[in-house]
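Listing 4. Sequential folding, example run.
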Amino acid sequence: MSWQIDEAGWCDAATVVPSPNCDARPDGIGISLLVVHNISLPAGRFRGDHVLRLFTNRIDPLAAPGYDALATLRVSAHFFIRRNGELLQFVPTVARAWHAGVSMWRDRPGCNDVSIGVELEGSDLVPFEDIQYDALIRLASALRLRHPLREVVGHCDIAPLRKTDPGPYFDWQRIHAALPQLKADLLAE
């Protein structure tokens, strides 16, 4: 069964964990970009609820080294795909999640305005799971039916001086083979 995004921007296959870290998109701006990230908290450790706590402003500043700085951040993503393929949604797609930070794509700054952010549970140091790719492809297909997505890129593409995710283990060929209509022409940059 295919996944669906409703008119309010919620995916029927996702567990909803509402984040306050979002706001309205600018009027008249289409959602054209899918941005893929990776995240693990603590770094390199999977499972647990630390990412959910980060995106909902409930992270314990004493839970791990460096968390004191994370506790003051106000960040989110629309979706989080766990290592087992579980899909969580923090922000409806019609709203602007705070995932891209200082960013630019095709000479347009502020990629949060035009993008949907998907975090994969992982890091730059390990391959992603097959089930995560399957979930990402299903999600992207559902998103294309609801929004005028034109390209899928990595966080590294929109913030190359700051970010490296989704990292060297991310299989772009697999994504482009499944979603050729979203392949970004990086040579045009």
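-- end of first protein; second protein begins --
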Amino acid sequence: MTDSTISKRQILSPLQTSQKIRRIAFEIYEHNFEETSIIIAGIAGEGYAFAKRLVAELADISPLHVELIELRFDKHIHFQSPIIFDKDVQVENQVIIIADDVLNTGRTLAFALEPFLKVSMKKVQVAVVVDRSHHKFPIHADYVGYALSTTLTEHVEVVLSRPEEEGVYLK
């Protein structure tokens, strides 16, 4: 065991995490079954890993054509950095689902909305693995894997990109 795993308490096992992601995929399909295609925009890091898992689950359970894009921006600076798509995608008149690992204050998701506000879309939805409910911005998740009450000093880590550590942890 490394020092980083000793100080963590596992909240969701790999199996439980996978079940939450699959349930979110079913909910996305239920709310968008009339669509022929949707776009899932994952926020770089574990949000993008979550988005890739959603795309795989949706391919397994639905006929939807799902386009995956990665949103890259620096979420640690105090002013908004430009948001870069990892590829050229037509977002106009589409359903967009922004995917991230943890919804805490809503700041990152508020920033992630910026490129989609400049075009006409059918709707924008938000999917997260964990909602901590410490919202400072008027952002809510349409799809939540796990709602977790935490203190402001605790840290929630969702691990999806490293199979040997997969799960949700509280530090």
